[in-house]
Amino acid sequence: MGKNRLALHIAAVLAIMFFAFLAIGSAASTPSASSSASDSSQTISKGNVYQLEPDHKPFDALGLIWVTSVKKFDEKGMETYSEGGVVTLLLKEAQKLGGNDILNLRVDENITYTKKDIKTDNGFRTVTTKTITYTANALAIKYK
Amino acid sequence: MMFYKHRLICLLYSVVALFTGGVCYYIFRDFNMIFSQIFKLKISFAHIRLSDNFITYFLKYNLCDGLWMLSGIFFLRFLWFYNPEIGNYYVIIFVGTALLLEFLQLTNYFPGTFDIFDIFTLALCALLEHCINYFFPFIRRQKWVKIG
């Protein structure tokens, strides 16, 4: 009986630890900025290349086009600002050149985490926000 | 045998609440969480976009914590089903730990963002479990009295 109760105590403590781990693990995290200053930021970059399949029709290459689009997220990860999708922006740029499609899409993604101390009723609180800057280029084409 | 069945129901509630909370996290959260870094999870359900209002905010950021809280309490009730006095102590410790972890987010040394609605949700779930725990035996007793 004593052994059984001890097992229950151990199980209960383990259960509390497990749920505490769940609570901590589900918190939003950002890479810790290396600077010890209260306001700091860190950027992570990556690039992607997309080979778009052209229609089986002859086309003229009009040249490379570039666009930049920024998206901002608050500390909860909710989008607060967006300049739009890069593909749509590239198509608009292609249209300006007289084109009607794009090929060879390359997108650079720069994610910047910014830590900022904001003043609250209880003192200061660190708020981390995320800004994603997409820089994309593609070949504008015009189908004949 | 009757009590054994009720004990298993506690375990079932616990598993269902844990699973539902996990699914909510998996579907609705797209910001990188500590979990995704530890387990290298590719959590990306960005195509599920919820409009920004109080209910979706609650669903995304508060309900999951509340469900996990409920799951933990039910699991402790399952463990200490035949000794509810000790079970109550563990439930109090558990609820206290959950609230403490939430309040520690006010400091800069603890991950996460303090949210007063998290506190309300945790308290509400603890209260809900207390009501279930209190009223179910009460209804059962009433039924037995009628039968008797």
Can you walk me through this structure?
The complex is a heterodimer of chains A (144) and B (148). Chain A is α+β, with helices and mostly antiparallel strands. Chain A is built from two helices and five strands. Chain A has helices at residues 2-25, 86-96; strands spanning 40-50, 59-73, 79-82, 101-120, 123-143. Chain A is elongated. Chain B is mainly α and 148 residues long. Helices cover 74% and strands 0% of the residues of chain B. Chain B is built from six helices and no strands. In chain B, 30% of the residues are buried.
Coarse structural class of chain A: alpha+beta
Secondary structural class of chain B: mainly alpha
Q: In percent, how helical is the residue content of chain B?
A: over 70%
Shape assignment of chain A: elongated
**For this entry, what is the oligomeric state of its chains?**
heterodimer
Main attributes?
heterodimer, A: alpha+beta, five-stranded antiparallel β-sheet, 2 helices, elongated, B: 148 residues, mainly alpha, 74% helix, 0% strand
Question: Outline of this structure?
Answer:
With 144 residues, chain A is of the alpha+beta class. Chain A contains 2 helices and 5 strands, in the order αβββαββ.
